[in-house]
Design a protein that fits this description.
The structure holds 2 protein chains of 2 kinds. By secondary structure, chain A is mainly alpha-helical. Chain A is about 45% helix and about 5% strand. Chain A has a two-stranded antiparallel ribbon. A two-stranded antiparallel sheet of chain A has the order 2-3. The longest helix of chain A is centred in the N-terminal third of the chain and has 27 residues. The N terminus of chain A is likely disordered. Chain B is mainly β. Chain B is built from 9 helices and 54 strands. Chain B is globular and about 100 Å long. In chain B, about 55% of the residues are buried. The chains are: A mainly alpha, B mainly beta. At the A-B interface, helix 1, helix 2, helix 3, helix 5 and strand 2 of A face strand 18, strand 19, strand 29, strand 30 and strand 31 of B.
Amino acid sequence: MKINKNIIIKCICGVLLGVTGCNDYLDINTDPNNPTVAPLDQLTSKIQKDAADTYNSGDFWMANFLGVFTHQIVVREESDQYGLSTGSNFISNSWSNLYLTNTNLNSLISTATDQGNMVYAGIAKIIKVDAFSKAVDIWGDIPYTEANKLRESILAPNFDDQVEVYTSLFALLDEAIANLNDETAENSLTPGEDDLIYGGDVDLWIKAANTLKLKMYNNVRLFPALFDATAVNSLISGGNLISSLDEDFEFKYSSALAPEDERHPLFAAEYGGGQITQYISPWFYEIMMGVNPTPYFTTVEDPRIPYYWFNQLTGGGLAQNPIDYHDPNTDFVSIRFGSIGDGRDSGQRGSGTMVGMYICGGRYDDGMGSPDGDLGSSDGTGVAPFQYINYYERLFIEAELIQAGVVTGDASAKLREAIVAAFAKVDDIAENNQSSQTIPALSGTTEVTGYIDDVITLFDAATADQKMEIIMTQKWIASFGKFADQYNDIRRTGYPVLANPNGTNEYQIDAGQNSDGALGDPLLDSETTLGRDYPLSIYWPASEVNTNSNAPDQKQQATYSIFWDN
Amino acid sequence: MKKLTLVVCVFMLTFMIVNAQTKQITGTVTSADDGLGMPGVSVVVKGTTVGSSTDIDGKYILEATASDILVFSFVGMVTQEIPVGDQTVIDVVLHVEAIGMDEVVVTAFGIERVAESVGYSVALVDEEELIDNAEPDILRSMTGKIPGVTIGSATGAPGSASKISIRGATSFTGDNQPLFVIDGVPYSNDNIATTDSDASIVGGQFASGISSVDPNDIKNIQVLKGGAASALYGSRAANGVVLITTKSGASKVGGVKKGFGVNITSSYGFEEIKSNLPDYQNKYGAGTNFEYANFNGSWGAAFNTRDSIPTPDNLKDNFPDQFGDNIAYVARPNNVKDLFDTGIIRENSINITHGGETSTFNLTMSEVDQKGYIPHSGFDRKSFALGGTAQLSEQLTVGGNMSFSHVDQDGPLFGNNQISGGASSFARALWPARHWNWTEWPYENANGESVIPNGGYDHPLWSWKHNTNKQTIDRTVLGMNASYEILPWLTAGLNAGYNKSLQEQQTVIDIGSRGAEGLGEIRENTYVTERLESTFTLSLNKDLNEDFNIQATAGFNVSQNDVSVFRITGTEIINPGLYNLRNTKNQSVTDDYTERDRIMGLFAQATLGYQDFLFLTVNGRNDWNSALYLPEGGVGKETTNFFYPGATLAYVFTNHFDLRDTPIDFGKLRLGWSKVGGVGALGPYDNNAVFITDPSVFGVNVIRNSFSLSNPVLSPEFTKEFEIGGEFRFLEGRITLDATYYDRTTTDILVPLTVPRSTGFQTYFTNIGEMTNKGVEIGLGLTPVRMNNGFSWEIFSSFTTNKNKVTKIIEGIDQYAINVNEVAFVKKGEPLGVFVGSSNYRDDNGNLLIDRSTGQLIRDNEEKVLGDPNIDFRLGITNTFKYKGLSLRVFFDWREGGDVFSNTIASLLGRGVTRDTEDREEGNYIIPGVYGDPNTGEPMLDGSGNPIPNTTGVNMNNLYFGESFAINSSDEMKIYDGTTYRLRELSLNYSIPSKWLENTFLTRASVGFTGNNLWFFAPNIPKYTNFDPEVSSFGASNVQGIEQSAAPNPRRYMFNVKFSF
């Protein structure tokens, strides 16, 4: 029967379609538009560009709310008061980017390994370890061993235990270092300018990997089963860590808009968007101003302020709308965390304080206000890096480890080195900002030296516990914008102290602007509130929990903690 | 036919027996349609061969006795029997028969069958209904009229896409539209947009392919609903087939009036939106908690509490000479209404026909020009069609046709305004603060930029002028057909056609918009589809013996479909006012691809008739589909060809038994089973594993894995359907009933399954799942009044209900979102498109949990099923009153159920602009519920373990702007029941009596009025929002019932004039 049918078909085809057979006529399903192989260099560049987004700020990525949880940013949207919806796009976009990038990472690792191009494989593994260690820090249990195995028909990957994921990440990181050091590898192809991070410098990648390992050990230092003090000591004594500003592990955004938008995503969102979404936290502001009464914050104004944010108002002008928090002496305009005041929901596109040069390549605050109308995307460049691990961060980690008694050393000297390096980082970003503004250098100025001396004096006089607080608070200030890292630090150490909307006398500057627009309304404690507990981890994206039948039941953020959390 | 009847009757007349008791009866037979005399009507004395027929004016004369009954009959008209009695003059009005007994229906591939023998429900929409409606989109004009067929449209831009669905969906996320076949050639109804047309950053509502069809050239539309009817069309027909026959493409000699005719139709109409806008409150202006502030929401000071407010900075800064420090604080009741225009529609068409003994010719030219009620929006279609058929010899008939149409569409920007870069023109259009004098305040500054009182969106008037979506569609169709009668019972046929559509779109976001960072952006998109289709058939029709007849067709069908896409985006417009890509700073090609697929099919169908009452039809088709072939070097299993059979049985019991003395005139029972195979949503190359080259970044080239992956082992999906039904006619056609029950199951559905992102992909192409649709379709016709003076009242009701259920997805995945930005889901055990989203915590007794510190609801951390957009049933009732040349048609539509997720309602309530929130006197509202812990979602209990009732109050401002209800609420609180009663259409037509035209060159003339969407009532929608549940953001998409700041539906009034000479 079947044979007969085929004969009939062939006859009909022959008659109707000429000499070619039906199979030739129908066998046309090879895609003429897209390649079936991916060159390692193109894959590497793509991965580096995408991976930087996952834990970044901006309109799409999860640091958009992590900054609220670390109290450097305040928003009017749901993440205020630690409210977050499980369906939040910020969560799902980052989650999605993590796993879609991992597909490319796996392609790069397997192709590079097959070809013996082990430098590529090593770089891919480092990026993977960074991405997944942050994922565990944020979510806890995540799909890992069964993730990215759709080709093996795994449609609903199981969630792995968070400790096990971390354990295998340490192993993968060792593998990466071994790959980079592999002298037997053929390495017929090695990265060059396609490596947007280190331009193909293998030594720097090894330093980055070692520093990443140090960072991860520090992060789990309170979880004995994973912490390895010997390894930490040998990493530090080995000297093969990021050792200067020039060796920073970071992804540098540019000012180009086309063919793809290459600017820092936070810059694109805030300077290019129609409203301010990321306000500078008044808590952060008052600490930087040196007026926060919590012991062991400094009492002097931080010289980094004009590099960190930009005040659109000048000369004590009024905000365009009633506003929750307005310091007319500095023109700082913002909203308190947990505010229920009348001015909270006002639009302040033309008068609100905006994120500045250091964090996203925005405008350096020269005190002149916005040059022409609302601050827009032509008033800055968007050139700023996404900082994976910096030299200053390595120093802060060492200071923390010394203070925690894990390694020996002079915590005070290390802290000073760290703060000096942090100021140098601000200068570095300013130098590379490509701005038409003249941005003065900070390092070495009397202001800066005075500030650092102040901090160290305070530190030297403090108790052990207070010393840890000072280290962590200084790290928090220095790493403005590195919200995922700060979120870890706060959960691990409990520092810095965060604003408590239910407390009293939280804010020192009577900075209200009442509904008539006039200044001078006192700030009322009763105008801030908080009903929810601090989120110990973040919701898994609803899209994953909804779709993946092997996903656990959705967590409660206030109770689900990460294994290393103290 | 009329002529033949005339000849026969005249012949019979000569044998008429005259007898002494007879008297002479005279009279006129007229048509209920136009009141004109009908020539050739047979008038026979019942039970005899004695009779006559009417002359050219419809007059007759015959002899009969008082006890005789006269039978008036004419093909296609309801036969009437009238006792003579003592009458000598008997005038009769004949009515068109609903389903002609001897009517021939055209089925798949032009196969003609006697209606009686067809084992499935046939739905036909004729020319008159389409043209009278004066709706430029043929799909929309069918809304509610055909049982089992549902039509949904995106609203706003004139010409925006419509979605037609027949007997529910067969695919989760793939295209559920039927196959459109026009004169034998498939027609693409693809809806292409510069970006996603819905909720993405920049949205437009573009016309879909079918909008290029000119209703004026349509002869009829036939809907093949079930698999039994459509299976011969193969793979693409699982969702039914809409067969459109154009006047130009008719393949038969005949069916056209003999001689030369010209028909001219001219319509003029207007659209108004004002009566469908919300009822606004005019007591409070912008601000919060009864205090003025320059906000969007109207929760501020009452208008009688202050006279003036500070001039908003934007106005003062941009127009210093027009504004002082303060402006009056007064309500602007018409600030929304005055934004809109009155839409205008003009339509003109001319149709020239010629019918000869052996040839026909048709030419149709028409233009529709629509100016939307949204300023600067419009739709214009020019079309031209010509065709003819010639009988070249006794055996050979050939025909050919061509048509060309050109569509221009201009529409505004829609989309999601909340994402940076979003620039919906409706972001605030319907909910401005009540004191904004929007239409009189200037809105464009010296640099041409949008100026609004506050911030965060574009001024709608500015946006409509500057931010545009433009589209042109050029459609070319060529067709040819030939049939050759090899033997009297054997005919060979060939039909070949070519159909090309070129769609070019341009989206402009102008300098100074909220979108594109104010720098300007131009997106261009070129989309070309080309179809080539050829079908060869061999048909036989033979009486095997006295009792058995066989009618059979076998054929071979080949089609090829090509698509090519080119998209380019230019950013940063250089010189204002010039909207071409060269005037942008950077350009990048965002898409550039071509696709080709081919399908071959062998099919056969045979109907075996026993006497004239029992008909068995069997059919089968074998398909080969190129999309199932593995790519070069691909590994996997190929299942490239597949077979599917079907069978139907029709039993005309009124032909079997003599039921002449009973009220039943005609009765047929139908039974059908069918299976249709297809490749579902699988397109060319979907099973290829590829990498995607993205635009270069940082000066280097980049590549990535495709976001979608395919299972290498794919097989066709199948839809099995069982249908049972019947057609009945009672009391001389005064009651007609056509009812069908169907039960269809689609298995192995081929769709890009949305997979958890932890798989590393977005979608996975594989055979998944199962979905069932069960439904009832009823068409009931009643003629309560039919008087001899020509007055008649007819009712036609169309009832449709369909229960859809997703019965299986795939191991590991029980639900997924159809569109990640929306609440529409595919969920096992639920209907397709069910709403799943955020809700609020409740205790075990269903009480809402309340946060003690805020008095507001607490958001649940699990997403839940919240509603179902599928309509419970739809009932369309058309009342037609006719009196001589006058006819009045009233079409009432009842939609029961079908939830809607509405951003408009949430925004209207959340911004406090409608009268729903007017009574907001100071005071607190206590949401009924009990206290709960916001950290755990557990109820808080008092000392004795009892729940604590909420006593924390919220003011109305926070009630609707806070987390509980409306704008910032959970998804749950944005969903409403969409039950709607609607006066969808009212039309009044008058045919001028022919005697008035006697001395003119005209043969027919008529004038008419049609009103569309004149009234609706949706009982479960907040009253003053006036929200129409039919308003939708999604046109041709599986996401239904979701509305994201879409434009409201207008009312439409059309006047038309038709004449023929």
